[in-house]
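look at this:
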Amino acid sequence: MRKVATVCWFQGALADVRRKNRAAEDLLSPEQRAALASARAWWQEGERALDFLAERARHETRIAQIQTLLADLRASRNVSPDTVAEILRRVRGVSANRALNRTLATAEFGRALRDLLYGEGSLPVRLAAFLGTQRAGAQTASQLLHVAFPDRFPLVSPATRAVLTATRAQKNAARRIAIQRYEAGEDTSRGALSLLADFVLYDAARTALGVETFADVNAILWHAREMPAATSRASGRVREEAVPYAVADAVPPEPAERDLLAYIEARVASQGFTYPPLAVRDYYLALKTKPFVILAGLSGTGKTRLTELLAEALTDNLSAQYRLLPVRPDWTDATPLLGFFNLLAGEYVSTPFLDLLTEAGRAENRERAFFVCLDEMNLARVEHYFADALSAMETRARTIPLHAGRTLRIPPNVFVTGSVNVDEATHPFSKKVLDRANTLEFTDVHFGRYAADGKGRARKEPLPDIAPADRQRLFLGARARDVREAQEKLAAIKATYPDRVLAALSSLNGLLAPRGMHFGYRVRDEALMYLANAFDADGRGLLEEKPEQNLAAALDLQIVQKALPRLSGTQEALEPLLAELEAWAGEAYPRTRAKLHKMRRRAAEEGVVTFYEP
């Protein structure tokens, strides 16, 4: 009887497991399962098959590297912040997440991470404790659980979750299944239960896709966003099994932004071009901060060429992702850039600029960077032909009106640079234009050779081998999106940094205000964002190595590039202000002091104060 009872209990338990699995499988509708099948076929077959295998191999190698670090974390009695920082850096390479930054690189977070992954108690209890005590959300918890146990936990992110298109009813059903599957109690927090429900949905997607690993689920969902709208596959198509592959024992570590900058500078130097120290880095940071930059200065100093060199170094695809548009003096409206409606032909006439915006806006290109250079942009008045685009960049919608109610969005992965030569045939910039751009000046000419690190030092270590996709991902992803995020990042590096920057800008504005040359909130906010972008995700300087020196250099550059271009007038009226500003700059801001000294000297010779030098 006891044997019969045991068999009956086992059969009942097995039936219960099967019933729960069927409930999870039934979460997705036939339409959703068909869409997932199309996504798998699109990513794993044809010309993308090799990309799929290579990406899977890289993912597994990264996971193996992280698990070695996690084993050390689990075994160590004392948690090292350096170990935590290295874990976070490598986890960012698995899936982009700006929350995984140096603010979490503490012994306290390391202990909380260890409790989440290896602590006692049920998963809902550990997860609720982690989410309740740390400055990390559900996405961060999901990533950390995945890298520790890749077969048990999926990678949850807003981007891939959106592809699943789960309805409210499906989410509620997933929540009920999660409560049973993970034995969640009534006291389980809402955030923990929501993530557990996501785990159920992703598990249903894995079953529907017919793949073994959550890494494959993540890759298919991620790349499904790139599928053309009309993509479909015949459901009866026979698929060959993937050929087994080997994972290398050791691969180079995930590239950091400092590696990317070193790579870009070396690529520029390899083309035979020399720029002053920090010039390439400054241009890179200015573009990251605001996708509109002005390069001004002496003709023949490589301004236009720099736009091409940077685009080439980032994309390796100039023909598709870069446009050089020479500005003509007869550009009196937006039609040379935005096209026009031809009444006779009954169709809209496009332009290279419009075509590039359209291409950059495609779903499959959202992680690619596109660049435009308006060569000699002040041959015509910028406000006449570029006003619509300038205004669109300032709005959340970023849309440009075209014709008959049609609009076009300027995608956030498009970056515009204007090269400027100042002479009698060109037009001055209004404050509206200057407020919306960083103005970088190129007047110094050096016929000697600069070292490949951009600072006059020879590089001893080999350059990192960074794939074009990774270069663009770093460039597009590693930036402060708004002033709040910028202040938080600066405060995480050192609590006093935001107040110090604001105090310096306020002091400068106090000197400019009596002459009506002070700046507004836009300049303040963009200066803060530039300074935040001048540090990488781990708080290391991108201009100078030491944080204090890096902050000072970035603030000095912002004063020169955002505040000084506004100064114009007669020498008689502005000489007292220039002298006062030069004294204010002192030793703290050497670039500002040097530029003001040049402006004063030229004003004494010509009687006119201007930022630009011919």
Observations:
- Residues 480-614 form one domain.
- The radius of gyration is 28 Å.
